[in-house]
Design a protein that fits this description.
Layout: E1 2-5, E2 15-19, H1 27-43, E3 46-53, H2 56-60, H3 72-82, E4 86-91, H4 94-97, H5 101-112, E5 115-121, H6 134-144, E6 147-151, E7 155-156, E8 159-160, H7 163-171, H8 175-182, E9 186-193, H9 198-201, E10 207-210, E11 220-227, E12 234-241, E13 252-257, E14 268-278, H10 286-304
Parallel strand pairs: 1-4, 2-3, 2-5, 3-4, 5-6
Antiparallel strand pairs: 7-8, 9-10, 9-14, 10-13, 11-12, 11-14, 12-13
Helix pairs in contact: 5-6, 7-8
């Protein structure tokens, strides 16, 4: 995927464009990008997505913004898998937030993106005071030479697929429902880094990933599958949280892979959360923690029927 940071310099050629936050890249987002790719192929133009960094709610209300489901890298990778070939990342700062709806259309869509056809979600609003909407874009398209369409919501068993619904499923520990909404298991990517080596000392060596999601979308102990270390995903058990028993304060993802003994420091892996085993908790001592980790490993092996 080709990535453009900011809109001050125009993209090299006209595009079909989809706009959104795309947090989580769930089934609704996937349907929108699939439609984007179809229209782009028919018009022989590049399919491009426009997204924002940070999430607008993080800019306007950082203390109450929802937990991110995906990092920027994860989002772009998933959008690429859905069919996007280019992405423009608009920095959501004070200057961007102050753009009027007219300025957004002229500066971002027309000059920056050279848009020829625009696809938006049914609830998309833009511009200072959120004054821009579908009708505004249709009128602007007549003036600047682009067409617009809105995608309806994707429904799953009577429930609207949304990032909020995914967050609710994750918080509830219902990984299976989260996977249905996403169209795949929930994933966190990261680079394996050195840790305290505590897991190795107690017989459960772990691959440690520093987490950029803050706040975390969920915490707990999970049965997981890890991609990036071979041709097939590897099963394991993982703790996502702050590790209260050992005085941890920063979010960390620790993954113990079953029947695996390789040096993988520096590797970039994807961890798929397929089933929640329990909540994260504080134990009175390391021996109690070790006993629980052993029980968690047995439970995860049973889940995978190993």
């Amino acid at each position: 995927m080709r990535v453009f940071r900011g809109y001050s310099r125009p993209v090299p050629a006209p595009v079909v464009l989809a706009i959104g936050n795309f947090d989580g890249v769930h089934l609704g987002h996937a349907a929108l990008v699939k439609r984007l790719a179809q229209v782009a192929e028919a018009r022989q133009l590049a399919p491009m997505v426009l997204t924002f960094e940070p999430h607008p709610r993080e800019f306007f209300a950082p203390d109450s913004a929802p937990a991110r489901l995906t990092t920027l890298r994860e989002k772009l990778e998933l959008l690429g898998e859905c069919g996007a070939r280019q992405a423009m990342i608009c920095p959501f700062n004070a200057a961007f937030a102050a753009l009027s709806a007219d300025a957004f259309v002229e500066q971002v869509l027309v000059r920056g993106c050279q848009v020829r056809h625009l696809i938006i979600g049914d609830d998309f609003r833009f511009g200072r005071g959120r004054t821009g909407d579908f009708a505004f874009l249709e009128e602007a398209g007549k003036r600047f030479g682009f067409t617009v369409e809105a995608m309806g919501s994707v429904m799953l068993d009577g429930e609207r697929v949304s990032s909020s619904a995914v967050r609710q499923a994750l918080v509830a520990g219902n990984m299976e429902h989260a996977a249905r909404l996403l169209g795949r298991p929930y994933i966190i990517d990261g680079q394996v880094s050195h840790g305290q080596k505590l897991g190795r000392q107690i017989g459960f060596a772990t691959a440690n990933l520093r987490i950029k999601h803050n706040p975390l979308p969920m915490t707990g102990v999970f049965a997981v599958e890890v991609s990036g270390l071979g041709d097939t995903p590897l099963p394991g058990v993982a703790n996502l949280g702050v590790r209260p028993t050992v005085g941890g304060t920063r979010p960390l993802l620790e993954v113990h892979l079953f029947d695996f003994d390789r040096d993988i420091y520096g590797a970039h892996i994807s961890v798929r959360f397929v089933h929640k085993l329990r909540d994260e908790q504080r134990f009175p001592n390391i021996d109690a923690l070790k006993a629980q980790i052993a029980a968690d490993a047995v439970a995860a092996r049973a889940f995978f029927e190993l």
